[in-house]
Write a structure and sequence with these properties.
The protein is of the alpha/beta class. The protein has helices at 10-18, 30-33, 70-84, 106-122, 130-139; strands at 2-4, 24-28, 42-46, 58-62, 92-100, 128-129, 144-149, 154-160.
């Protein structure tokens, strides 16, 4: 599993500890992973998600895509698809991010829209509806996806080649 933009490895460490037979890689910018120490099943790789994502059975991204505009998300997702596709088998991409749902109760929708305003003002990204996500996924060649609302405002999104 590759944790794209995984920082100092908090999530990947938890996964590696829970599943000791799984090899985890944290991919982040050189200055972020400099000095990070891996374990037997956790390694840190300095790199740029817009250029290359190491091959893996699964690519994981938590709170990454909402930071970027659609054009940049397309590049990231293309690299993810390349990373999980090889001649023997295809893996999947796992995303933890927000899916704005206008059918949700008022307070949750209000909070989701507040986050959207934050992303627009603090980054060049935004929060997306399922329709917005689907356009990105299909444009990068993924054939199907599954969205499972979990973790309050967040959803678990699985992409399949």
């Amino acid at each position: 599993m590759v944790d794209v933009g995984g920082g100092t490895g908090t999530v990947a460490k938890a996964i590696a500890d829970a599943f000791t037979g799984l090899n985890c890689v944290v991919l982040d910018l050189p200055h972020v992973v400099a000095g990070c120490e891996g374990t037997e099943n956790l390694t840190f790789v300095a790199g740029d998600m817009f250029e290359y994502i190491p091959p893996a059975d699964a690519v994981f991204m938590k709170w990454i895509l909402h930071d970027w505009p659609d054009e940049k998300c397309l590049k990231i997702l293309e690299k993810c698809k390349q990373a999980i596709s090889n001649k023997d088998k295809e893996g999947k991409v796992i995303i933890v991010d927000m899916v704005v749902d206008f059918k949700k109760e008022h307070k949750i929708l209000e909070t989701q829209l507040f986050f959207d305003m934050l992303m627009i003002n603090l980054t060049s990204g935004r929060e997306r509806t399922e329709k917005d996500w689907a356009k990105l996924f299909l444009a990068t060649g993924f054939t199907s996806y599954k969205i499972t609302p979990v973790f309050g405002l967040r959803s678990l999104i699985e992409l399949f080649p």
